[in-house]
């Protein structure tokens, strides 16, 4: 709704490209290992150390694509390839899998809101159909493009092109100053127990990872409101 109304705020900042990818690796690697899928990350030697764009939105888009790759791949591998086109100053993220693939007919509608390409009977693999449509719009808001290539029963590759905005990269501002202030002010509270209530499993992973990186290691995860209330009453989180 915010995207359609033109009210979605973009948080542009200077950030390290490899740091973004490594954090995604830490979140998804275990999931792929548990499913016995190979997971590869290939970063080209020519990518810039830093870029200037919305780090959080890029993370959202790539997380969604990796989550889909995990969901629809039963054997083989999933890979993330990161490259840079200096002439266009574009960083290109490619998420590829050897999953069920998408037919040519479904490819025409893959970015339409509420469109479910796979139409699987398994409810665990059904969603709202909004994921890719929102990803497409987020990438466009960042000045980039989201493309897809796929072949039924052979796999899918999503390509995310994002402007690096190299001319706006500010040296010495790789670390988000908000995180620095938070770490200092909460330093004496890192032994506290944190309760996270979030119904989206990818968001739960992201939030939990952020707290862990900040030094909080006693985390309670609730997937719905009822669980959150029960944990609040029995576990007494801080």
Quick structural gist:
This protein is an alpha/beta fold.
For the structure shown, list the relevant keywords.
single chain; 238 residues; alpha/beta; 5-stranded mixed β-sheet; two-stranded antiparallel sheet; 7 helices; 9 strands; 35% helix
Main sheet: strands, sense, barrel: 5 strands, mixed
Number of separate strands: 9
- End-to-end distance: 33 Å
State the helical fraction: 25-40%
> Structural class of the secondary elements?
alpha/beta
Using the alpha-carbon principal axes, give the shape.
globular
Strand-helix topology:
Elements: E1 12-16, H1 17-34, E2 38-43, E3 50-54, H2 55-71, E4 77-85, E5 90-97, H3 104-107, H4 131-141, E6 145-151, E7 155-163, H5 177-185, E8 193-197, H6 201-213, E9 218-222, H7 225-235
Parallel strand pairs: 2-4, 8-9
Antiparallel strand pairs: 1-3, 4-5, 5-7, 6-7
Helix pairs in contact: 1-2, 2-4
Describe the structure.
The protein is α/β, with parallel strands linked by helices. It is built from seven helices and nine strands; from the N terminus they run E-H-E-E-H-E-E-H-H-E-E-H-E-H-E-H. The protein has a five-stranded mixed β-sheet. Strands 1-3 form a two-stranded antiparallel ribbon. Helix 1 runs parallel beside helix 2.
